[in-house]
Specification:
The protein is mainly alpha-helical. The protein has one domain: Orthogonal Bundle (Arc Repressor Mutant, subunit A), CATH 1.10.10.10. The chain has helices spanning 7-18, 21-30, 37-44, 48-61, 80-89; strands at residues 64-69, 72-77. Strands 1-2 form a two-stranded antiparallel sheet. Helix 3 (37-44) packs across helix 4. The radius of gyration is 16 Å and the shape is globular. The model has no long low-confidence stretch (mean pLDDT 87).
Length: 110
Amino acid sequence: MVTCETREAALARIGRALSDPTRCRILTALLDGPAYPGRLAGELGLSRSNVSNHLSCLRGCGLVVAGYEGRQVRYEIADAHLARALRELVQVVLAVEPREDCEDEPVGTR
């Protein structure tokens, strides 16, 4: 079932999905088109169970959808707008200062 969310909740889901480098690699691979977990695992040099766990997260966040073909499951990016936005995001050049992390660290722990 497709539901409508507030913009903030949708962005938070996208942020959660993009917060993990492996999920980013999977999403980038899915920009080339639908794929099966086994193929993604081989292309990305990951275990199939690792890929399946991340696909489950991406699915839970609403970024990918699963299509069942017999006993196989094919995954693809859930929405053309999202695919277009991800294609734009991978082309962004960030102005990052050397040695500056973006992680949420408690103040005074560096």
